[in-house]
Amino acid sequence: MRRTNHAADKIMSIATGMKLYNAQLSPFAARCRLAIYAKDLDVELLDMPNPELEPEFSRLAPMHKVPLLVDGDITVPESETILEYFEDKGLGIPMRPSDPVAAARMRLLARIGDLYVMVPMGELFTQINPAGRDPNVVAREMAELTKAMGWLDHYIGSPECAVGNTLTIADCTLVPILFFFDQIGPMFGEVDPLKNFPSAQAYYKGVQKHPAAAKVVAELDAALRRMMGS
Length: 230
Fold this sequence. Notes:
Layout: H1 6-15, E1 18-22, H2 27-39, E2 43-47, H3 54-60, E3 68-71, E4 74-77, H4 79-88, H5 100-125, H6 135-155, H7 169-187, H8 198-207, H9 211-229
Parallel strand pairs: 1-2
Antiparallel strand pairs: 1-3, 3-4
Helix pairs in contact: 2-4, 2-7, 2-9, 5-6, 5-7, 7-9
């Protein structure tokens, strides 16, 4: 008689039917995809923009931002909230450390990435076109970005995982951020932007040994090439 793993069956039934409104080039959607891949969740990716999906998306997402997770009658906006939702529901491998010190380090790295790296990097993306570039804005935001990357470099834990020896929510956040940091440097004359941040550089290379991280980097690269070629 076949023994049923009720816990595993419950996890799979919870995950089945979930949908994620996604944008391939969004670093916020990318962090959710990384968790989905690492956890091997059954989540349908709905790529935006899509005119056919727009009416339903607008109804479900008053902020009109991706990513947006739909789990039955439940909608969960905002990438960080989605990642925590996966953890709270116990889906797939755990990506939130049980040790309070490791959990605090995980949240710190994600917060530095979101508040201090992403913000100046976002401003720099508005300055990509040399024709409309403001040198003062570039100098100011590059200084802020360099300072924030120094903080990130200080706290990254190991060459393959941001915290401990398994993927966590911090990795979901940092992999897309470091992808864009590595890409934006050459746009402003810095051929190898990670060279001044050895821990971050080693980590960005090492974390891609994890198939989920490598897949997300490849997706971001392909989406960026499509955008730049258009």
